């Protein structure tokens, strides 16, 4: 017979257990990748782990609030732009540039999200997709800062000046571990939000906004909070990508990429950190594998489209939801004495 525990104790234990499991999984996975991968594949996994941060924000908005935001990859580009501009303008430590990129993307996310705060479903999706399209047009004409002077920091056809990585992460393997640590901290922040007062408010808003408002939940405040957090995570991801490649290319931040990020976030699972990690890896690894074997990597977009439809129809919690259900089933069998 199972013994009931106080609700507060269960929540605390669950939060600590989830975070510890996340840290352990990331540590093991990062160790294996750092020891076995090199060169091209190490950069692929580094960028995948960075994009997992943006996927966590996308999953937070969709999984907790039911909001379809299709501008998160554009916010990754905005975060990368701010990170590079701050570095080339002031030559401050990488962490300060990274924080500036996160705050810049968070500010733009809130600024764009406020007019759309009363929107849901298709209308919100279209409004956020407009931001993604706007950024694509702007960055195609402006490009990313590469060491020049002035507001844009662009030097034209001259060779770019790469952003300097942190001294403790100057090598490719060291930088991959650095990105993993930042990812772990970001996912821990998201997990804390899911399991505390903001998460409960978001869940109530998702179920019924009128009931949430009647219960004393400030709709605008908590929706803005969610947009800000998702924007900061996307901006930090953009800064990490800038550090991975030394600079960024405007052609890599299309509106289609924002759609793709939402698709892999839903497929991976918008419910927890596992889904975000899977989404980041799906965003980068399958196209890289196809290219490696001489197949056009854009074929992965078609596969992701089919996968999104399958997830929405048959598995709304994504792959991570299936993993959680399997783990819960095994734990239940063990407690009932059916497993050793």
Explain this structure.
With 340 residues, the chain is mainly alpha-helical. The chain has a single domain (7-335), classed as ABC transporter involved in vitamin B12 uptake, BtuC. It contains 13 helices and no strands. It has helices at residues 7-36, 40-65, 72-90, 94-113, 121-142, 172-195, 197-207, 209-214, 219-245, 255-268, 273-292, 299-314, 318-335. The longest helix is centred in the N-terminal third of the chain and has 30 residues, at 7-36. The radius of gyration is 20 Å and the shape is globular. Mean pLDDT is 86; it is low at 1-12.
Do you know the CATH architecture? Orthogonal Bundle
User: How many domains, in number, for the residues?
Assistant: 1
CATH topology: ABC transporter involved in vitamin B12 uptake, BtuC
Give helix and strand order, one letter per element, not per position: HHHHHHHHHHHHH
Gyration radius (Cα, Å) is 20 Å
Task: Explain briefly what this protein structure is.
With 340 residues, this protein is an all-alpha fold. It is built from 13 helices and no strands. The chain is globular and about 55 Å long.
């Amino acid at each position: 017979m199972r013994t009931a525990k106080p609700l507060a104790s269960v929540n605390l234990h669950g939060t600590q257990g989830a975070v510890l499991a996340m840290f352990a999984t990331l540590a093991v996975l990062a160790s294996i990748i750092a020891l076995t991968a090199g060169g091209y594949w190490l950069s692929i996994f580094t960028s995948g782990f960075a994009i997992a941060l943006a996927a966590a924000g996308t999953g937070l908005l969709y999984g907790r609030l039911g909001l379809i935001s299709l501008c998160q990859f554009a916010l990754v580009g905005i975060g990368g732009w701010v990170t590079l501009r701050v570095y080339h303008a002031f030559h401050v430590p990488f962490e300060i540039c990274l924080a500036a990129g996160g705050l810049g993307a968070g500010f733009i996310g809130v600024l764009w999200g406020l007019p759309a705060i009363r929107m849901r479903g298709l209308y919100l999706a279209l409004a956020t997709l407009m931001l993604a399209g706007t950024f694509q047009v702007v960055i195609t004409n402006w490009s990313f800062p590469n060491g020049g002077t002035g507001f844009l920091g662009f030097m034209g056809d001259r060779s770019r000046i790469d952003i300097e990585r942190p001294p403790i992460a100057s090598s490719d393997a060291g930088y991959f571990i650095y990105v993993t640590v930042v990812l772990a901290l970001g996912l821990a922040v998201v997990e804390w939000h899911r399991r505390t007062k903001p998460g409960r408010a978001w869940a109530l808003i998702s179920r019924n906004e009128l009931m949430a408002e009647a219960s004393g939940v400030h709709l605008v405040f908590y929706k803005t909070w969610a947009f800000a957090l998702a924007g900061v995570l996307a901006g930090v991801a953009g800064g990490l990508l800038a550090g991975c490649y030394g600079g960024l290319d405007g052609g890599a931040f299309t509106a289609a990429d924002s759609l793709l990020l939402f698709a892999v976030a839903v497929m991976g699972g918008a419910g927890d950190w596992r889904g975000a990690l899977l989404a980041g890896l799906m965003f980068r690894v399958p196209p890289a594998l196809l290219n490696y074997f001489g197949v056009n990597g854009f074929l992965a977009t078609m596969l992701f489209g089919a996968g999104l439809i399958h997830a929405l129809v048959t598995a709304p919690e994504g792959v991570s939801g299936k993993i959680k259900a399997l783990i819960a089933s095994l734990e239940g069998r063990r407690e009932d004495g059916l497993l050793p």
